[in-house]
Amino acid sequence: MAAGHGWPGTASDSADETAAMIDDGHHRVLPGPFARPTPARQDQCHARLAGMALAFFGVGFLVLPWWTLAIVPLLLGLAALLANERPPLPFPRRQDRWVMAVLLCYGLSWVIAGPWHGEGLRGLKDAWPVWLAVLTLVALSRLRVSSAWLWGGFAAGSLATGGWAAWQRLVEGTARADGHEPLHAILFGNLGLLVGLICLAGLGWALGRDRRLGWTLLLAAGGFSGLMVSAFSGSRGGWIGLPLALWVLYRGYGPRLALRWQLTGVGLLGLLLVGLYVAPQTGVERRIDNAVESMEQYLEGDQEMTSVSARLEMWKGAARLVADRPLAGWGARGYRQEMRERSLSGLQVPSLGRYWHAHNDLLDAWAKRGLPGLATLLALYLVPLWLFVGGLRDGTRERRALAMAGVLLPVAFLGFGLTYSFLAYPAGGLVYGLMLVILWGSYRQAPLAERAGLTG
């Protein structure tokens, strides 16, 4: 090969050129497959790897087994190690410390409760998912990732989940669509509703893109698919919190829309909800009628156990346990034993002794882990609300959309947790923790001012 095109022409030329390069502090990149990647190529590689991690989370957290989500922090950690550039922003800032502190303290409440109640370190199985989210945030602090990966992942995941729910309900004929164990109809349906609401939150971001029509249609379809998942699952607990979630969406976007567009949006949403209610394939009308009838029977003193009356009795039982030990709680094993003993002794309905959680996140945390468990759970809800709510008034589309998604996360989990103990499952803690730090990590780096063209 001629000199100047890769290799020098002679051995003496090679020695002279090598010496000159050493003296000048330079080196020549070897050609072929063993060449060291240039900084530009390395940056491009880690950015794509981080983007794929965010997309994988959006696509996979309902379609794949829940433990596969551990791949997300691994990919982000690898991308952070490959990153050549300095972190986009200083880390940790005051808000970052709040996020990490609330996750660490919530996990710690599980770990401490175990030895305190003679249960060893069984609390680690509930603590590690939220602690893994802390490592994820540290990795994200070193990366700058286009939020298009995140919104695209949520939309694709919602559409895939909606297709799966429709297949189960309409083709396989299952009574209620569900997902992988330990997910079931309640967890599957409510988390499907959450990802649909997050897709609707992303519509404002989509309108700021160059290809706004395609992104808007994709996220709108994701929002519709999430509502459909909830309907096919028959998870009524999610419908209780739906009005509040829709109010959050209105507070974020409604005041910026002309009155005719506000009325159009409300009308279309109303028609959609009515359609899901009256369509016999969804089973929504039957589930709501059953709930109303069960409540009427309970108030009339009917002793027949339904899903509604059973929940009310479980809340009564958990409240009695809280009253007996409000500070320390009973522990996970102690809660179950005490509920079983009270059922056998006739202090409550015998059939309720087989349930291992209170079907209410706040009561479950208080009864099992005492006042520290309740306080850390409330902090897990309230700190993200405090951090994100100011962004609903942000002038940039990207930050406002991410802030809206960040507000919807604790609002939705708080609503879901009124009638079921979502965070009693490690899968619930992993989804909440990862979604929180991914939304926060994206929000903290989003531009403060609109840029020309792409804003993602």
UniProtKB/TrEMBL annotation:
Membrane topology label: Multi-pass membrane protein
Record's keyword terms, sorted: Ligase, Membrane, Transmembrane, Transmembrane helix
Single GO cellular component term: membrane
Name of a matching Pfam family: Wzy_C
Superkingdom of the source species: Bacteria
Predominant cellular place of this UniProt entry's protein: membrane
Boundaries of every O-antigen ligase-related domain copy: 229-377
InterPro entries, A to Z: O-antigen_ligase-rel_domated, WaaL-like
Annotated compartments: Membrane
Name of the protein: Ligase
Organism per entry: Halomonas heilongjiangensis
